[in-house]
Design brief:
With about 425 residues, this protein is an alpha/beta fold. It has 2 domains: about 5-45 and about 305-420, Aspartate Aminotransferase, domain 1 (Alpha-Beta Complex), CATH 3.90.1150.10; about 60-300, Aspartate Aminotransferase, domain 2. The protein is about 40% helix and about 15% strand. The chain has helices at about 10-30, 40-45, 80-90, 100-115, 140-150, 165-175, 195-205, 235-240, 270-285, 290-300, 305-330, 360-365, 400-420, and strands at about 35, 95, 130-135, 150-160, 160-165, 180-185, 215-220, 250-255, 265-270, 340, 350-355, 370, 390. The strands form 3 sheets. The chain has an 8-stranded mixed beta sheet, with helices on both faces. Strands 10-11-13 form a 3-stranded antiparallel beta sheet, covered by helices on one side. Helix 1 (about 10-30) runs antiparallel to helix 13, helix 11 (about 305-330) crosses helix 13 (about 400-420) and helix 12 packs across helix 13. Bound molecules: pyridoxal-5'-phosphate (PLP). Pyridoxal-5'-phosphate binds near residues 101, 189, 253, 255 and 265.
Length: about 425
């Protein structure tokens, strides 16, 4: 197939007529397909259904004797602290296990740093207009947290190995109002890239002008491999070695391991940071849902069985990611009208259209009954400077629906691109 840029007006018009006709048919079909958020599918959730019944009227005590029905315990049952610590290659006292949303842990952490400051620091709110670096495209809800706290966001370009480290090193060294950076180091949302060893080493060795600068290391997809297990370097250990022991907060989540709405999540950091956070937790909460922790402990037992469980998720997800990749390659390959990622894990495929077309493509899809994440959502303040990035979330729809949605998506990319060349 010819590249669109090589087509003459007649060829483009003929193609436009064909695609307009296809869109009339899509609309008539009255479909309602959803590829917005990266959520687990019903059959993935069913993998954990035994967790709903794995406790009983005689089983509510943790290994340390704690009665999980009662008050007590701030940082998680020892059983689940060990599971997270083993998965993240940390010690249990570097881990705090919380409730069902790691996003809530991140929000709280930013909130407290804004109002009270990091350990031995001044409240960020008293220091002027503070800023976060935001590798982009990135996770929209990280940006929403910044918006909520009126934190300025500075986009940082993403490459194959992670964000632009030259830029990050320069900026954090020069500006004491840069207080944080959002990172999704493994199977980044949405690009699916994995930070290289060199990138992670450079993060650990940052020399920020602000002593209260913090890395928000959201390792949401730590164990979400579609194929071979991929390991990334341990940022907490590297920060320790580099003399920056308190510079990083790690977050992780079982939302896409057990039940997305009823999982457990964790925050990990230096022992000193964890002690400081636990002091605050005494004012904030009576502790996490220990029965839910116990359910997870009973169901999973240990880190090795969590990894084995993730292979069951991968078996469900692999065909979906393959379908997306096959369709993009067969329908759009060689046309010069888009580029896309082929992630080895995580929950998303990232698509870049010709400049200025993402909003149009999303609108065309919406008109044909396919809901996509709004164009721009992957950039701070919803502003994609090139209006080109679209996040594809293939995990939730059954294969047949995914195929129908991708068919419409590929046609929308073609139609928007033809329109651009004809304009
Ligand atoms: N972090 C990233 C990078 C995500 O992609 C998601 C969900 O899509 C989350 C965090 C949300 O995690 P949780 O469900 O634990 O709040």
């Amino acid at each position: 197939m010819k590249q669109y840029s090589q087509m003459n007006k007649d060829e483009l018009n003929a193609l436009k007529n064909e695609l307009d006709g296809a869109f009339v048919k899509y609309k008539e079909a009255g479909r309602s397909l959803n590829m917005t958020r990266g959520v687990p599918s019903d059959d993935q959730l069913a993998l954990c259904n035994d967790m709903l019944t794995c406790l009983n009227a005689n089983d509510y005590k943790a290994a340390n004797g704690a009665d999980c029905r009662n008050y007590g315990g701030l940082d998680g049952l020892p059983e689940v602290k060990k599971i997270f610590a083993d998965l993240l290659e940390l010690t249990a006292d570097e881990v705090i296990v919380g409730g069902n949303s790691s996003l809530a842990l991140m929000f709280d952490n930013v909130s407290v740093n804004v109002s009270h400051g990091v350990r031995d620091g001044k409240p960020w709110a008293t220091q002027g207009k503070i800023k976060f670096l935001c590798p982009s495209p990135g996770y929209d809800r990280h940006f929403t947290i910044c918006n909520y706290f009126h934190i300025d966001m500075i986009p940082i370009a993403m490459g194959e190995d992670g964000p632009d480290m030259d830029e990050i090193e320069k900026m954090v060294a020069a500006d004491p109002l840069i207080k944080g950076i959002w990172c999704v180091p493994k199977y980044s949302n949405p690009t699916g890239i994995v930070y290289s060893d060199e990138t992670i080493r450079r993060f650990a060795k940052l020399k920020p002008a602000a002593s209260d600068f913090r890395i928000y290391w959201d390792n949401a997809y730590a164990i979400h491999d579609l194929g071979e297990t991929k390991k990334i370097l341990n940022i907490i250990r590297l920060c320790e070695e580099a003399g920056n022991p308190n510079m990083v907060y790690v977050f992780s989540s079982f939302s896409k391991v057990s039940f997305a709405g009823a999982s457990m999540t964790c925050m990990a950091s230096s022992k000193s940071n964890c002690e400081y956070i636990k002091q605050r937790l005494t004012a904030q909460t009576i502790g996490p849902d220990k029965l839910n922790h116990l359910r997870h402990a009973r169901f999973f037992k240990d880190a090795a069985s969590v990894i084995a469980h993730m292979e069951k998720h991968a078996q469900i997800l692999r065909p979906k990611f393959k379908l997306v990749s096959d369709m993009l390659n067969s329908k759009l390959g060689g046309l010069g009208i888009g580029a896309w990622t082929e992630p080895k894990g995580g929950y998303f495929v990232s698509f870049d259209s010709l400049d200025g077309l993402a909003k149009r493509i999303v609108a065309l899809c919406a008109g044909a009954g396919v809901a996509l994440t709004p164009a721009g959502a992957t950039y701070p303040n919803g502003q994609d400077p090139k209006d080109s990035n679209i996040r594809i979330a293939p995990t939730f729809p059954p294969l047949a629906e995914l195929e129908a949605a991708m068919e419409i998506f590929c046609s929308a990319v073609k139609l928007a691109s033809v329109e651009k060349y004809l304009a």
